[in-house]
Amino acid sequence: MRLIVAGASGRMGRALTRAVVETEGLELCGALERAGSEAIGMDAGELAGVGPLGVRVSEDALPLVAAADGVLDFTTPAATVALSELTAQARIVHVIGTTGLDDADLARIEAAARHGVMIRSGNMSLGVNLLAALVRQAAAALGSDWDVEIVEMHHRAKVDAPSGTALLLGEAAAEGRKISLAENAVRSRDGHVGPRPEGAIGFATLRGGTVVGDHMVILAGAGERVELSHKAEDRMIFARGAAKAALWGFRRKPGLYGMADVLGIA
């Protein structure tokens, strides 16, 4: 399976390149970066620390997409939406780990999924997706008098909040409760905010240092708490998950899928 890595010079892009090289059945056929990037023309393998691969970083997506079987994409919302329209036209697999997507972005990706295989997740790791399944089950089992709070911490350079993983976990809790996350999420508290609304799903965001990603879901009842957590220690867990997702989606029928589908725990 011939893959393109989008955002090839970034931290996740370099990890994705390494994952492609390490995964049997995958071959790197292209590397993309934004126009004006200093990485344009560089060898993607040398950027990733795996030695020369003969694949030069390019800013021109169209010819690369036309010759590929899939794209691994952990970039920006605008870049991901534009790329999803190209991958849909080419009818190839598009693995999306980009976070910070808004409703309009998601609507365009869903439209693209009518023609191409779109696999999107706020987190590609096995552990986080198993955590989401546990959160869904716990939220369903415990009553609405148990309060749900989600605490996440990432490195100082992360630009979106809450993290895509925190939102994924919030959605899992909301699904377990059969409520809407959009209508029950509390993303900030400051000043005199009054008592906590019943059924609210709260988010707390921490940023600092070089933390790859820590997430904790707290279910707090009267006199007791259940805490479910995951700590990411290496970005390669996300990259390997994305590579696994690409192989799973190869030659699958068009549609919008998630990591729960890939792992068989949907």
What is the H/E order? EHEHEHEHEHEHEHHEEEEHEH
Calculate Rg over CA atoms. Answer: 19 Å
Helix content: 25-40%
Q: What is the average per-residue confidence, as pLDDT, rounded to a whole number?
A: 95
Which structural class should the secondary elements be placed in? alpha/beta
Low-confidence stretches: none
Inertia-based shape: elongated
Spatial order of the strands in the main sheet? 3-2-1-4-5-6-12
Quick description:
The protein is of the alpha/beta class and 266 residues long. It is 38% helix and 24% strand. The chain is built from ten helices and twelve strands.
What features would you describe in this structure?
With about 270 residues, this protein is α/β, with parallel strands linked by helices. It is built from ten helices and twelve strands. α4 (about 75-90) links the parallel β4 (about 70-75) and β5 (about 95). α1 (about 10-20) packs across α9 (about 235-250) and α6 runs parallel beside α7 (about 165-175). The chain is elongated. The two termini are about 25 Å apart. The mean pLDDT is about 95.
Please name the defining characteristics of this protein:
7-stranded parallel beta sheet, 266 residues, 5-stranded mixed beta sheet, alpha/beta, 38% helix, elongated
